Amino acid sequence: MASPDFVTPDWSEPLDIEPLLEACTPAHRLKGLFFDAAQKVAARAGLSVPMARYMAFKEYPAEDYVRLVGGWVSTQRLSVPPRQLIRMIGWEAFPAFRSTVAGKVILAAAGGTVEDLIGSSGRAYAISISSGSLVPRVGTKRAELEIRGIPTFADSFHVGVFEGVLRAYEHEGTVRVRRHSPVDVDLLLEWP
After folding, report:
1. Is residue 100 situated within a structural domain?
2. What is the pLDDT of residue 128?
3. DSSP conformational letter for 7
4. What CATH number corresponds to the domain at position 144?
5. pLDDT at position 43 over 90
6. Which residues contact 95 (CB under 8 A, 6 or more apart)?
7. Is residue 7 part of a domain?
8. What is the arithmetic mean of pLDDT over 140-167?
């Protein structure tokens, strides 16, 4: 049973990107593969987005990502709520990471189970986004992840990231959130 202070996100909750932009510093940088994954999801959702080419492991300002994705979901008519679309973008993050050479090396070193992978997620995050942190605590069929100082939609995108991980390992699980601030959240993952 989930702790009562972890909740299922309300995907229809309005999205305010201003606190995320205020939290972005020049030290917050994100790998280009996440920009590419976001463009693919946006295009599949029928959004009119300018397509750009991002190099998978080149770093780009996290502020650009927040402005880009936040702008897409805030200014266009969507068939799904903005937070839900950002969650869907998160679903593509793990497959995008896994498709890179660096991702394959990290995943091979992590081990073969979902527990192993989630246990090594702090290292994967350290490679993927500069500044901020993810600290995993993994148990039997559950994990708590402490995400701190990461301004890239911590309560929607990162929920989708770990839903994507569970799916990749063929687990039907849940990801719940405990918010501390727009950039600081804890995630509770549970799976059968």
Report:
1. yes
2. 87
3. B
4. 3.90.1520.10
5. no
6. 37, 164, 168
7. no
8. 96
